[in-house]
Structures are given as structure tokens and as C-alpha cells.
């Protein structure tokens, strides 16, 4: 029997994902305690408490585990071995399982496991030196995408190679364990938020994701693709979920090629930027769904309420400075438009500071809704005057 107040959930990481997890947990009667290396992190104002400690600090993990009933994480920088040891020591369940985190945090290990499971992925090579890149170029041709095996996000840790002259420069940019992929010519990028519960698997509606400089700018749901292609994407996502151990929400990023083929790009073992639209756009948000799943509670409906576009608010300043967002009245005056500000004290170029969502109706054109959302978002600025 589920009762309120409910259990306490511990979240390793206290960025914007931790903040939105805590916001979703509160109406369910679930308290959240977070840990993060940064004092007064974005999740701190909405969580019951924040512990300050590094992502590989066993003492912080131990204290967090002793104060909560379940553990999860909102960032892949967590050391899965330490997380597993503390979980065993304190008898506090961790979801998704630390083994899943270990699988996903290394992009080469992730790609190998998915390929072995028959999931379609771009062709890839392990890179231990320049010759491996040259061998890949010999087989796939240019361009190539060089990726850091660990730690890359929002374009960091990736380097495109367009010809032989760019190989050394790309290796210098990555400067560590890497892999190289054949460059994918795609029609569009798609994402699916999948969820594994106590005894059920489900997926949210497929979303089209729009990137610039490898940073997510907007999401469009429903995705502007045909039903047959979207069904193939859903099948790939469910196959991916079968490979994951432990409960929770997973962000699954995909490529749709011009001939309708679906290729897996990357997986995140947590709520993901491409699913932020679900807060207003679905019956159950990805964040509430993650809380439910980690606690072993029944999952909520993933049904989409209405067509929805989400647009990220990025730092538009030239250098790091104190953050003040101007022109919020533009959002407040727009019917169906919703603001989510992440509460970060400082802004710098292209830092994710928040997002807006715009709700449409079934009779509208998703492209028009996207353009309208961009118009509102583009009037928001951190520059005074």
C-alpha cells in the first residue's frame, strides 16, 4: 500500500534535472535530498536538503544513502563503483542500476553492447591513436565524428573530422580515450523518453529534436515524420530499454536517415533535455515518471495532452557574469506559454539557463508552433539594454 508522506528520494546531482525532479516529487508527498559539488545548486531551493560533495566522494554518497530510502542520479559523472559499494553497504536501492550507469557512461562500451544486441548504430571504431582514425577513414570515408568515450555533453567531447588534415587537431581536442563514428547524413534527429518500472515498460511520444552546434535548441512533438518511420523508432527504443538494468526514465536519442532508417545515437540513464516538454505536454511528466519508477510505484500515463514545442534559453552573453533574465513579460503575455527558469546564479555563453514550452492544438501546424515559440524565446535575454 502506498501512503503519503511517502519515502525520501536521494538524487546525486543537483542541477536543473534535480530541481525538476524535486518539483515533481513534492505533490506526490515525496521529499528529495540532493548532493552536488556546488553549494546552493539549482535543486537546493526546492529539495528538502542539499549535501555538498564531489561525484566520486564516498562519504557524501554514504551520508546521502543513510538519509534516504532510494537513490538515483541526474548526471553521468557519478562513479558507478562507489555508488554500488555505498548502496550495498547501506542497503539503499539505486535505480537505474549502477551497472547500467557503467554501461552508458562509456560511449564505446555502450555502442558495442547495443550493436551486439542487434540495435542499429552508426559504424564505429575504437581509437587508441592516429592510425585508428586513418583506418576508419579508409573504411568509411570523411567526414568522421570523433567522440570522447566519457564525459562529453552539449557538443563538448565531440570533434568533426572533414579530411586528413583535421585528424591531429581533432585528437588534440578530445585528448583522451576516444571512439570514432561514421558521419550520419540524417533527415532529422528524434528522441524518445522510455521508462522501465517495477514490471512494465513504456515510452513517451516521439519527439523531434533540433540542434545547433550540437546543443539542443528546440523539441517538437509530434515529430514531423511519417507513422511508419516513427513506429520503427519506437521499436528501437523498446529494444534499448530491454538492455537497461534498473528502474527509471531513459533518454534515447536517434537519427532518422533520408531513407527512413533509424540509428541509435546515444542513451542517457535519466530524464533528458529532450523530454522537458512533457511537463506541460503529457499527462505525466518525465520527472514524475522517473520518481514513480525509481520508487517502484505504478507508472503514469505517457499520453500527450496536445502538440507541444519546447525551446531552450541559452546564455547569450560574451563572458561569465551574474545572471538576470530580461523580458519575461513576453512569456507571461503569451497564452499557452510556460517558463521554467533553472535558478543558476551565473550565465555564460550557451549555458542552459531555462526553457519555455508552448502548447498548441491538434488542428495547428507543428512548424508554425515552432516558429511562434522561437519568437518568444528569442526575446528573452541576459543582456541589459
From TrEMBL:
One of the GO biological process terms: 'de novo' IMP biosynthetic process
Xref: PROSITE patterns: ATP_GRASP
Enzyme class, first EC level, given as a word: ligase
Domain of life from the UniProt record: Archaea
InterPro entries noted in UniProt: ATP-grasp, ATP-grasp_carboxylate-amine, ATP_grasp_subdomain_1, PreATP-grasp_dom_sf, PurK, PurK_C, PurT/PurK_preATP-grasp, Rudment_hybrid_motif
Residues where ATP binds: 107, 147, 181-184, 189, 211, 265-266
Keyword Manganese tagged: no
Every ATP-grasp domain range: 111-295
Pfam name, any one: RS_preATP-grasp-like
Catalyzed chemical reaction(s): 5-amino-1-(5-phospho-beta-D-ribosyl)imidazole + hydrogencarbonate + ATP = 5-carboxyamino-1-(5-phospho-D-ribosyl)imidazole + ADP + phosphate + 2 H(+)
GO molecular function: 5-(carboxyamino)imidazole ribonucleotide synthase activity; ATP binding; metal ion binding; phosphoribosylaminoimidazole carboxylase activity
Residues spanning the membrane: none
Pathway assigned in UniProt: Purine metabolism; IMP biosynthesis via de novo pathway; 5-amino-1-(5-phospho-D-ribosyl)imidazole-4-carboxylate from 5-amino-1-(5-phospho-D-ribosyl)imidazole (N5-CAIR route): step 1/2
EC identifiers of the protein: 6.3.4.18
SUPFAM superfamilies: Glutathione synthetase ATP-binding domain-like, PreATP-grasp domain, Rudiment single hybrid motif
Keywords: ATP-binding, Ligase, Magnesium, Nucleotide-binding, Purine biosynthesis
Record family assignment: Belongs to the PurK/PurT family.
Listed PANTHER family: PHOSPHORIBOSYLAMINOIMIDAZOLE CARBOXYLASE, PURINE BIOSYNTHESIS PROTEIN 6/7, PUR6/7
Quaternary structure, from the entry: Homodimer.
Function statement: Catalyzes the ATP-dependent conversion of 5-aminoimidazole ribonucleotide (AIR) and HCO(3)(-) to N5-carboxyaminoimidazole ribonucleotide (N5-CAIR).
Protein name: N5-carboxyaminoimidazole ribonucleotide synthase
Provenance organism: Halapricum salinum
Gene: purK
Amino acid at each position: 500500500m502506498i501512503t503519503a508522506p511517502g519515502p525520501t528520494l536521494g538524487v546525486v546531482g543537483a542541477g536543473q534535472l534535480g530541481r525538476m525532479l524535486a518539483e515533481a516529487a513534492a505533490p506526490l508527498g515525496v521529499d528529495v535530498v540532493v548532493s552536488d559539488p556546488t553549494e546552493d545548486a539549482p535543486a537546493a531551493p526546492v529539495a528538502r536538503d542539499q549535501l555538498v560533495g564531489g561525484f566520486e566522494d564516498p562519504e557524501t554518497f554514504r551520508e546521502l544513502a543513510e538519509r534516504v530510502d532510494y537513490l538515483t542520479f541526474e548526471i553521468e559523472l557519478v562513479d558507478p563503483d562507489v555508488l554500488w559499494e555505498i548502496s550495498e553497504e547501506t542497503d539503499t536501492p539505486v535505480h537505474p542500476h549502477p551497472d547500467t550507469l557503467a554501461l552508458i557512461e562509456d560511449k564505446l562500451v555502450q555502442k558495442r553492447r547495443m550493436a551486439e544486441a542487434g540495435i542499429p548504430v552508426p559504424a564505429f571504431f575504437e581509437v587508441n591513436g592516429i592510425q585508428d582514425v586513418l583506418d576508419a577513414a579508409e573504411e568509411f570515408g570523411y567526414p568522421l565524428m570523433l567522440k570522447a568515450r566519457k564525459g562529453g555533453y552539449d557538443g563538448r567531447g565531440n570533434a568533426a573530422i572533414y579530411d586528413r588534415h583535421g585528424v591531429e587537431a581533432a585528437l588534440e581536442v578530445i585528448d583522451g580515450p576516444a571512439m570514432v563514428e561514421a558521419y550520419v547524413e540524417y533527415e532529422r534527429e528524434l528522441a524518445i523518453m522510455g521508462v522501465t518500472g517495477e514490471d512494465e515498460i513504456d515510452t513517451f511520444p516521439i519527439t523531434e529534436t533540433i540542434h545547433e552546434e550540437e546543443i539542443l535548441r528546440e523539441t517538437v512533438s509530434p515529430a514531423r515524420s511519417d507513422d511508419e518511420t516513427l513506429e520503427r523508432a519506437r521499436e528501437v527504443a523498446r529494444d534499448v530499454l530491454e538492455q537497461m538494468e534498473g528502474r527509471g526514465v531513459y533518454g534515447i536519442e536517434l537519427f532518422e536517415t533520408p531513407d527512413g532508417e533509424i540509428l541509435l545515437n546515444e542513451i542517457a540513464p535519466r530524464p533528458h533535455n529532450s523530454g522537458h516538454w512533457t511537463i506541460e505536454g503529457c499527462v505525466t511528466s518525465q520527472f514524475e515518471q522517473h520518481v514513480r519508477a525509481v520508487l517502484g510505484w505504478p507508472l503514469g500515463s505517457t499520453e500527450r495532452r496536445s502538440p507541444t514545442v519546447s525551446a531552450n534559453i541559452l546564455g547569450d552573453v560574451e563572458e561569465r557574469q551574474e545572471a538576470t533574465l530580461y523580458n519575461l513579460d513576453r512569456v507571461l503575455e503569451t497564452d499557452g506559454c510556460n517558463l521554467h527558469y533553472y535558478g543558476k546564479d551565473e550565465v555564460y555563453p550557451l549555458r542552459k539557463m531555462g526553457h519555455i514550452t508552448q502548447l498548441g492544438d491538434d488542428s495547428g501546424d507543428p512548424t508554425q508552433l515552432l516558429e511562434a515559440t522561437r519568437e518568444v524565446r528569442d526575446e528573452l535575454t541576459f543582456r541589459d539594454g
